[in-house]
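Fold Annotation — chain and its backbone

Fields — amino acid sequence, structure tokens

___
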Amino acid sequence: MRKTFKYIFALLISAVTFTSCDEDSINQLFGEGDTVEALKQALSIGAEAASNELGKEDGYLQDSIVRIAMPSEANAVFDVVNALQKNEAGRTILKALDIDKNLESTMTTLINRAAEDAAPKAVNIFSSAIKNMTMTDGKNILFGANNAATTYLHDNTYTGLVKAFNPTITESLGNVKFGGYDANSAWEAVSGIYNKITDYKATSAGNIALGLLKVADSGTYNKINSIQAVNANLADYVTGKALDGLFTKVAVKELDIRTNAAARTTDLLQKVFGQLDE
């Protein structure tokens, strides 16, 4: 019958209750020093793999799990833009507003490129938290859920990552270029669409064009009237989403090490995590 390391641990705790074994005896039996070192190795491997994978070109952009979508405020704007493209009255308005029809895909590419540019810089922050893991941390992680190590890393690095990542993301948003924009200038263009529509509605030409749109497509007309200004802080938004992607990838690597013997690339990983297979 399959026995897991968790069951063995439970039996040992029972033994402590009834035989007064001290904690040092349990630690010696488990080799908790090895356990903590193995978990540190597993986390280090996972963090480095995540940073390297997402730091490559298209690391975020072409991964459906971690790809960063536009902020909801911008999605509402582009919902209007896309709707306007569907009839002649709407296209007339778009032409008058001089809105780049490729702006949505350009903006999406740029925010993912910025995250890719920043991802490799997470490794050092991860490493600092991993070094501080204690025996108690190691025990809780090993006998925890399949993402327990990733959760530990998240709880102990997230604040530091946000502080370190935000300036890096901000810099990347200004440096990464695509489709004639950097991310900041593209975001200004996205934010400006609301003002363009608002200003256009106040003109006589705009009033006539919107009247034609109301007849041709009342749904789009109503969307234009309900559109709101885009106020999202782009650097904060991309920082949060980029970190979500990093931790998602670390969790994938942790699960692989826990359940796949081939992923245990050191003797210590094989020794400690191999006990989970018994």
Residues 1-30 have pLDDT under 50 and may be disordered. The radius of gyration is 26 Å. Strands lie at 177-178, 181-182. Residues 191 and 230 are 5 Å apart (CA to CA).
